[in-house]
Design brief:
Blueprint: H1 3-22, H2 25-29, E1 32-39, E2 45-47, H3 49-60, E3 68-78, E4 83-93, E5 102-110, E6 116-125, H4 128-137
Parallel strand pairs: 1-6
Antiparallel strand pairs: 1-2, 3-4, 4-5, 5-6
Length: 146
């Protein structure tokens, strides 16, 4: 992966964080491809950058008002010239989060205009107790990178 694309992909994630912090649903939605999919950790599925932006604006105006999106990029893997998978840990919170309890996997694409955009994101709530029990009773389930 070349440094220019890595920088652009990181900048895309940072733009989404900045839009979230400003409570700007339109700017948040603009980080997504027109036909993107956003699967929330609650299981809600939003489709398309416009819908993702509209739904998040409603959230920014209510439940998520005044929150920040903290994202720590764990890895970026390229699949061809125009696709990458970005694995992150993060959290939405007011102020600095105590822990990064959500995992998100982003599929990002170089869109028709040459800009990197989120084509899909799937968020999962990390459940450390459930994970620890699984590893204790079935050690073979522990990933190598754990």
């Amino acid at each position: 992966m070349n440094a220019t694309d890595t920088t652009a992909i990181r900048a895309l994630i940072e733009r989404s964080q900045d839009a979230w912090k400003r409570g700007d649903g339109a700017a948040y939605g603009a980080c997504f491809a027109a036909d993107a999919t956003d699967v929330t950790y609650a299981g809600t599925v939003y489709r398309g950058g416009d819908e993702i932006g509209r739904a998040h604006q409603a959230l920014f105006d209510s439940f998520l008002k005044g929150t920040n999106l903290t994202v720590d990029i764990g890895e970026i893997r390229r699949y061809g010239a125009d696709t990458a998978v970005v694995v992150t840990r993060g959290e939405s919170s007011k102020g600095t989060p105590k822990k990064l309890g959500k995992l998100a996997t982003y599929t990002v694409i170089r869109d028709v205009d040459g800009q990197w955009r989120i084509a899909a994101v799937q968020k999962t709530q990390h459940k450390p107790l459930m994970e620890a029990v699984s590893f204790k009773f079935q050690p073979a389930t522990r990933p190598a990178a754990y």
